[in-house]
C-alpha cells in the first residue's frame, strides 16, 4: 500500500507576518501579570549587548512588548534580585551562548548540555588558558562565593577590550563548560558562581543527550518564531542546519508553504489554531530584538532591510550608529537613530516609509522619551526633507 504525502498547509505572506508578530509578542494585549519574566519565557532568549543609547538592548526588548515597564523592574526580573537588593534563593534566568550572548530561562539549562559538551571538546580557542588558572578560579568561587571578574583578580591585562587576563579567560571557559554560571549582574558586571550552587539540583543533573537538546531547541525556536524556514529556525539558537534536519520531523512543528517564500517552512501548530487578533504595538525596536535578528528573514517578512551600523565606519553609515526600526500596524515603517542629551531625546536621523508613517514614528519617539525620563524630543535630520515639518507637528501635538 502506498502512503500518500501529508497535505501541507498553505499560508499567505500576510498570514505568516501576523503569525510571526504574535509569536514575538507584538499583537494583542501584553501579559502584564507575567511581566518581564513572561516575555523572557515567551521569547526563549533575550540578547545582551554592551551598547547603551536609550537603554541596553535587554531592557529595550521587554519595553517594546510591555510598554513603559520600570527599568529597575527589568533588571530585577533578569538578575533575580529581591526588593531589599539581596539575591533570591532560586534563579529565574542564566546567561549563556544561544543566538549570541543571551539571557535564558533557567528551565532551559538542561537543553544547552549539548553546547556545553561541544565547548569542552573544542580543540582551539582565541585566548590561551594559563596553567592552573582554571582550577584557581573554581577554587576561589568555592571558597569565597559569587564574585565578579574584578574580584577574582582582574578582567583585562591592558585597557584593550579583547586583552583578557588569565583569570577572565579561565572563568569564561568555566562558564562555557557549565561548571560556572552567571545568574546575576552588578551594574554591568557578570557575577560568577558555581553552577552546582546556583542552578536548582533538578535542572543541574538533568543531563539530556544531544538529540533531546536539539529537539527541544528546535521546537522552542519554532514557537518563538511562529513560522520559519530551516535557516530561520537554525539561527534562533545558532544551531547548524544539519542539527535542525536531524530532529525537525520529531519536534512537533508542522510543515507549511508560505506564498512568496522560496524555501520550505515549519510552523508552531498552536500558532495555526486561531488567527492572530488584537491591537498592534507601535514601538522602537532594538537592533538586537529577536523580531529582526536575521536579516534575510526581516527582508522576507517585512520587505525591510535592517543592518546594525554601530561597527561600520562613520562615513559609510546610511541610517546611523544605532538605528532602531519603528514597528507600527504590524509593519516596519521607518528608522530612528537616537541619542540622549540631558532630558532631551535626540533623533539624529529619521527615515520614514512615506507620509503615513509620520504619526507612528512620532508616537514611538514620545513614548520612548517618556520611558527614559526625557521631557522633550528634538529631530536633527529627516531623510525625506518634505516630511520634516509634518513630523515636527505630530511631535508637538504628542508632547503637548
Characterize the structure shown:
There is one protein chain. The chain is built from 17 helices and 14 strands. The chain has 400 residues and is of the alpha+beta class. The chain folds into two domains: 1-284, no CATH class; 307-399. The strands form four sheets. It has a five-stranded mixed sheet, with helices on both faces. α6 packs across α8 (166-177) and α16 (358-371) crosses α17 (388-399). The radius of gyration is 22 Å and the shape is globular.
Which keywords apply here?
2 domains; 400 residues; alpha+beta; disordered N terminus; 4-stranded mixed sheet; 5-stranded mixed sheet; 14 strands
For the biggest β-sheet, the strand order reads 10-11-12-13-14
Total DSSP E strands: 14
Q: How much strand content do the residues show? A: 15-25%
Radius of gyration: 22 Å
* Mean of residue pLDDT values: 92
Largest sheet: 5 strands, mixed
Class inferred from helices and paired strands: alpha+beta
Q: Which overall shape is indicated by the principal axes computed on the Cα atoms? A: globular
| Discrete helix count | 17
Oligomer: single chain
Low-confidence stretches: 1-5
Q: How many structural domains does the protein architecture include?
A: 2
**Helical content, roughly?**
25-40%
The separation of the N and C termini measures 73 Å
Protein name: Cytoplasmic protein
Pfam families: AlkZ-like
Organism: Streptomyces bungoensis
